[in-house]
Write the structure tokens for this entry.
Amino acid sequence: MARNIVFLIHGVGQHSTDWSDIVGGPANALRAAAKGYSYFSGRSFDELVEFVPIRYDDIFDRILTGWAESGRKLREIGGAFSPMLDSGLMFLSKADSGSPAVAIGGDVPLYKGFRLFRHRVLMRVIADMASTIASRTQSAQGTPPSFHVIAHSLGTTVAHDAIHSLGTENWPEEPLASERDPEGVRKEKESFDAAKSTGAFRNGSFRLGSLFQVSNTSGLLHTTAVSPLDSIVRPDQYVQTFFNVDHEFDPISKVRPFAIPSAWGSMARQVSVRHLYEPNIHAFAHYLMHPRVHVSVFKQVCPDFQLTGAEKTVAGQFPDISPALLNKGADRLGRELGVLVERGKASLQDEVQEVKRWVELYREFLQVAQSFGVGA
Amino acid sequence: MRITLLLLLLAPQVGFSTDFTICDRPRDAKNPLAWESIEKRFSQEISDRKFQDILEQLLKDFQSSPNQADLAVKGTFESRAGDVLRKKTPCCPDFALAMQPAESELDNDKPVLFGGKIDLSVCDGRRGDQNDELRYFAHAFENVGNLQAAPQRMKTAGSIRDIEKDFDRLLFQGFPMFPWEALVNSWLLTDASLAKGAPYNQLVLAHMSVGASVGTERFSKSTLGWGLAVEPLGWVHYPRSGKHERWWGVSSLLCLRNGVGLGAGFAVRYNQFSLGLTWHDTNDNNRLFDNRPHVFIGLDVYQFAGRKMRQYSEITDRLKKDVDAVRAGAPGPEAQRSR
């Protein structure tokens, strides 16, 4: 039987090609968490589930690098003509400075503000998902796999926009049978369900098993014509089960936060955590290490997963503060993050102000995390 | 040793799997209603892609099953199956089993069908048999839908990948846009619909480049020099047959170079090469167009800087040496070759 598939979509920042497998990556975190449960005894998580990490930040890197290189080269020759031109080109030449501030201040404006770049990113995600879904379903013998998505931070926006587009756009569909094969054409017409001009990935023809939106930014940053509250990215539409995962002290998800509407019913669930195990509480792996989060994932991707009584007790007693952090300023961390959270919740006049606030908060959050001696 | 070898041979078949447990019953691949059996039973219809026939027969089997004792549950499934057969709804992601989250994340979730409308965790009385059987019928419907959609899904995935490649070629191998150009082209010329693909036209707006400029009054070494070019306004077009691998364009052109000052004219481009004519006030009479034009040959910095740094550096270094050599009075055949 085919393994169930889990698409992983990262957030802001620079990610290597093996971003999900390295320490701090989501696949690594879930594999590590799985070792604590008897269900996985004698088998690894990867024997039951296939991770498909989707990376898109290289697109932003290439754009910024290209601008920076052109700025530098133009300065060499053109900068001498005019001081004003030289200043402008110098600014352009710093586009790839690689600092976290540029990463945050670069990725989000590039995604939100430039439709061309946004389309490039979305097409990467959509193409990777579509080709995986198509090929795994085609090659599965017996029971085809179910497909799940776990997205983080800016990745929740990218996931939402990509999934909505995958399920609503009229993707080109070529005829399968050649016109020279009338019998093939007849079979195709009879067999392909054109009841509602469905399309192979259209809402109604396909459905994801579950979607985990971790530190959900889609409420603020989505670029679809409809809001995430009204799109097809919800139960009874394109997703079987929807999870909104949030950390009480994470300011990144607090600017125009996403709240599950009650109308979404019992197939949607809010998972709230408040643990402090490292200064960068926003990190993907930090979220996944909490039992309420990773057990929710295990139950969806491995439908017969169950906790033993003892495991449930231990998971329920998961400490909110890591012993390592207890004597190293956990109180201060909580206070400083609390201040950022309150600023995030303060309402602003318009979306542009809110996005600016979001970028500022992200930068300040990184500074807080770094002040504890750990890079974000 | 023999057992080890046997296990090794059987390894591909002895795989770990995860599936729904309904009323303490795991999925049984040998059940006559399991997909493995359905596939064999309807092998001819599957081969002929007569999926409607398969679904009709499955529904008849369901309706006549003595295990479907709870009539409300039976009716819910019949209604959904009927909608599919009457083509009121597409087939068949609705029929996938799901796990409904428990109130507490650490409690067991429960298997459900149709978003919770059928609770498959109710196991008292005859519901256990009914729910277990329901899962096989639901699974069969779901799989028929997958078989139906599979070929078109492969084709559509291929089309989607082609669109992705088009966007990639446009952005990273196509006309290199500065930030303001990307912004304006995003606003004005990029369709909101992803499925429409990458745009075939782009505006050129205050596009900067550098290149070699030579006067035509005297095609002599002394009129050769570096120029900084700005194309205030122009147009780039990608032929539809070209998959965004080729483009051509035309722009207005301003060229600034030492010794002759600012000139105006126009440029044409093909892929990363641009060729222009500019008129400069070389005779200081405040008129541009009474002078012979200069030829401008541009190499788009952005493109070459990004992809062919080394080659660009070699070309520009050679050109620079040639220009310096020319100014020093040395012969300039290298300047001719580098074009």
Remarks:
- Chain A is about 45% helix and 10% strand.
- The first strand of chain A starts at residue 4 and ends at 9.
- The beta strands of chain A are 4-9, 49-54, 147-152, 208-214, 239-247, 268-273.
- The longest helix of chain A spans residues 115-139.
